[in-house]
Amino acid sequence: xxxxxxxxxxxxxxxxxxxxxxxxxxxxxxxxxxxxxxxxxxxxxxxxxxxxxxxxxxxxxxxxxxxxxxxxxxxxxxxxxxxxxxxxxxxxxxxxxxxxxxxxxxxxxxxxxxxxxxxxxxxxxxxxxxxxxxxxxxxxxxxxxxxxxxxxxxxxxxxxxxxxxxxxxxxxxxxxxxxxxxxxxxxxxxxxxxxxxxxxxxxxxxxxxxxxxxxxxxxxxxxxxxxxxxxxxxxxxxxx
Amino acid sequence: xxxxxxxxxxxxxxxxxxxxxxxxxxxxxxxxxxxxxxxxxxxxxxxxxxxxxxxxxxxxxxxxxxxxxxxxxxxxxxxxxxxxxxxxxxxxxxxxxxxxxxxxxxxxxxxxxxxxxxxxxxxxxxxxxxxxxxxxxxxxxxxxxxxxxxxxxxxxxxxxxxxxxxxxxxxxxxxxxxxxxxxxxxxxxxxxxxxxxxxxxxxxxxxxxxxxxxxxxxxxxxxxxxxxxxxxxxxxxxxx
DNA sequence: CGGTCCGTTGAGTTTAATCAAGAAACGTGG
DNA sequence: CCACGTTTCTTGATTAAACTCAACGGACCG
Lengths: 240, 240
Fold this sequence. Notes:
- The structure is a homodimer.
- Chain A is an alpha+beta fold.
- Helices cover 47% and strands 20% of the residues of chain A.
- In chain A, helix 4 runs antiparallel to helix 5 (147-164), helix 5 runs parallel beside helix 9 and helix 6 packs across helix 7.
- Chain A starts with a helix and ends with a helix.
- Chain A is built from 9 helices and 11 strands.
- In chain A, strand 10 and strand 11 (212-215) form a beta hairpin.
- Chain A has a 4-stranded antiparallel sheet. Chain A has a 4-stranded antiparallel sheet with strand order 2-7-4-5. A 3-stranded antiparallel sheet of chain A has the order 9-11-10, with helices on one face.
- The interface between A and B is large, with 37 and 37 residues.
- The structure holds a DNA duplex.
């Protein structure tokens, strides 16, 4: 089975054979985690770096008043904080959304990769910067887009990320997200997300299922989202 | 005059004398930039790393429909993307909000610092992680707090950051932000920000001026924001 | 002294939240 | 295989929050 972590890094920098071997070695031990479980909790002293090999996860924060806000989705190949070791404790939680397969990289191993393997280091840096760009894009969405735009924009982001790691089949992507999870991500109520989805459905961009949503036409969603069409197309072409 | 960049890094990791000398050497050339100017524009090919030595700046994105969303504020000591060099082009703009003094670190110098000076590298990493935490906090604010909460929470963040770098005088902090800029940061309209500010004023937490706002009682704001009181107090105590 | 940018205020509208209730799918244990 | 509880989705009616539109005053600048 392909190691999606290796594949992702390969997309950011040309890895040597030895780089690949090291990465595979270091993520050799895989642990299954079942849907709904927290990988990391706020306040935990972070030590090993988690790598998601299969399945989806999300970072989230709980508010004192009881609400929840998701701040990122993690897909196969994504890591939970490369350098957490420099911080004293986690400031958010990470929850697995589907049954998943997860590996961990010990702090010593990670340090070695970062210091002795320039291409790996470079690839991890790039991944980090892309993640940061995504965080900024979320802020823009929440600050300046209406509900339909937010939902559609998030879907475009997820579609492109999935495409970049080869998760798209028949041009479609199944998002394993309930409307409740979606609501926690876009900062709306589940009730309103439901209304948005049914308004979006007639466009043909999505198919609504129980517990998941299928993105069937991302170009339509891009239009709704005010997603930079050129950007989407460029990325789509590259990945094709 | 103190080099706020050095001071900031010193707060994250114990620097050697040579580290400090190198950092001062590398930020020796200072350029004044007057309020309102863009340091970096979206699409620019990024090369040198900018370091803000004096003054405030913000990162922002413009939307096709004409709106603007600020995604971060930069204070003295902050840098504009340590590793932009690995990306092809900037995905956002950086604008100076006050008259400022800015230095640049060339790509080669930055690489050398990162690879040959472990403490500097570590400090820069920490700074990066803290920035990421701030981005996540913004997402939480925009997603789950009402207008007053958002404004107050942002003010708490800025107060703490300013306090950490020794910018607080008499327990007060002058935010050099117009209500328009504030609105672009919290994702509201200037009109509504104005109403929020006037609702906040009687609490004694802030003083409203033309072109700026003074935070006079952050504890009051923390209460309005639902800002984690322990967190604030802890930070306040540490810095005291 | 005129122009521009900010801030202020009010009235009316839009958007999303809230409250409430019920239907459909799913999981579990008997 | 069925009964039951739970979760998710759905829909309607009402309320609350924030936006829009519009107008005006004050401060600052050239």
